[in-house]
Amino acid sequence: MKTRTVFDYPVFALGFRPFFALAGLSALILMVLWNAMFKDGYRMESYFSGNLWHAHEMLLGYTVAVLAGFLLTAVKNWTGRSTLTGDSLAGLCLLWLYARILPFYAGMLPDALIAAVDFAFLPVLAYWVSKPILQTRSYENLVFTGLLLSLTLGNGLIHAQILGLIVNTAWFGMHWVIATLVVTILVVAGRVFPFFTERGLPGTLALRNPLLDALAISTAALTFILQMMSVSGFWLALAAACAVAANAMRVAGWYVRRVWYVPLLWVLYAGYGWIILGFALMGLNAVNWVGPSLALHAFTVGGIGVLTLGMMARVALGHTGRALKASNVMALAFILINVAVMLRVLLPVMLPAWYGTLIYSATLSWLAAFSLFVFYYLPILTSARIDGQAG
After folding, report:
1. What are the residues whose beta carbons fall under 8 Å from the beta carbon of 54, sequence distance 6 or more?
2. C-alpha span between 366 and 254 (Å, rounded)
3. What is the DSSP letter of 300?
4. What is the pLDDT of residues 125-144, one digit of tens each?
5. How far apart are CA 310 and CA 268, in angstroms?
6. Per-residue b/e over 208-221, b at no fewer than 16 CB within 10 Å?
7. Torsion sign, CA atoms 322, 328, 333, 339
């Protein structure tokens, strides 16, 4: 007789299901809490300081949840081997959830315990992602193990300062995390953009150029490295310009004008566009033409926020047996999240006197976008595939 697992429910049938659900909910909850701190002056007792908590949770909470869901699903496709399901998947989700909650018990729990729980998630995820890759010797996919370990390093630098082990590493670690996440997106983009474009627009042939892929990723990584080494001026601006050019040429090889008729495609291209703009703004900041926060939020709210929402929408449809067509609800969500980026990144430059209002408006637009995602996708993520297949 087969023993029924405790978490034998559709939501734990494959990695994207619980982690995309958690990501959508956290995008709402974390932003509401941050807005309360930013706009209303609300102060919470936490293991992290206010700004550090916001950055950590949006990057190593929300974004890593999306990454976990994507990798646990994609690795199954790449290797043909099963990844976490049922109780094991639920356990990993609980580890992620505890890492979000425990910092608010900083006065009751040892800091070392809070740090250990949060730090543990990425290495555990890396193990479960790597296992089927190594079993099938698909070593080219180990790049994602390396990227997960790079995120682990950045997270470790953050916790090391909070625990008093070293000094002045928390924000360096945060910038390391941002750089790693952007590079991860660029790696994933090379795999999915051509495929998604050809599937979404029959008859289209997207250019695949490994040399251009390598150039786009390496120039992006170099730009981040120079920035973290405190290189500024001409050399950082030059590296950023190279990253802009290489990534623009890369996207141009996949792009056709018809993507703007397909919401599941244009949202991805828009997200990549924000990353390219982020490098342009980084270059302008290197010569003191704009402030540093513009590039930061172009990468995070724009590149990471827009692309993760688009990827979750597309992956969830494909892996639940549904037609790869965005609903009107999600098309509106895609518009709203891009409006949030414009309000956060572009308009403050033109209307600096309205900065506070623009930030608040950007928050509302973000919340509206993810409210629509949760409303539309939570039933999809928690119910069985409509075609009767497993997953």
Report:
1. 30, 34, 37
2. 28
3. I
4. 999 999 999 999 999 999 99
5. 6
6. eeeebbebbbebbb
7. positive
